[in-house]
Amino acid sequence: MENLDQTIKACQQGNALAWEALIKAYQGKVFGVAFYMLKDKSEDAAQEVFIKLYRNLGQFHSSAQSFLPWLLTIARNCCLDRLRKSKTKMKYESDAEVEPETIADGIESPEEGTVEEQRKELLYQAIDKFDQTNKDILLLKDIQGLKTEDVAAVLEMPTGTIKSRSNRAKIKLAKALSNFSQFKIKASGN
């Protein structure tokens, strides 16, 4: 979005076109967070996030904070609230080992689905074995593409902690996925 500050000010003044532009610019990122955290209930959660954004946009001050981390904090908190309300238990196993055998359970055979779908499913199953903070770091930094500083703002953690936990989570994820042929890198020319 070219001039986010102007768009936000126009939204705060009730401009419907500016509001539509803001939603279009950020709906993908909000839906991505909601889908990652809630799967099948993500559309409702994404709508709820934009309702909360509409109600609270007057509290946003662009000089003091970055809009995307603020919006994704709202999205994350909304999803966590929904998970708590539905009494879905989140796994908070801080550094539990990811077992390849447990990841592969329930994956379709190559005849039943595409290899790409299987790769995504294996990836998300591996990430689901992580503690919530590492899941959030991977989602925000590596899947959503936020800068380390923005992830630190969303999760209210020091930047150095985000960097170290991100690196450890990537290494752990790579080890978990390295046992599967779908994730092995083919040598060029083969």
Description:
With 190 residues, this protein is mostly helical. It folds into two domains: 4-85, RNA polymerase sigma factor, region 2, helix turn helix motif (Rna Polymerase Sigma Factor, Chain: A, Orthogonal Bundle), CATH 1.10.1740.10; 100-183, Arc Repressor Mutant, subunit A, CATH 1.10.10. It is 65% helix and 0% strand. The protein is built from nine helices and no strands. The chain has helices at residues 4-12, 16-38, 42-56, 67-85, 100-104, 115-128, 132-143, 148-155, 159-177. Helix 7 (132-143) crosses helix 9. The radius of gyration is 19 Å and the shape is globular. Mean pLDDT is 79; it is low at 88-96 and 186-190.
Write the layout of secondary structure elements.
Layout: H1 4-12, H2 16-38, H3 42-56, H4 67-85, H5 100-104, H6 115-128, H7 132-143, H8 148-155, H9 159-177
Helix pairs in contact: 1-2, 2-3, 2-4, 3-4, 4-8, 7-9, 8-9
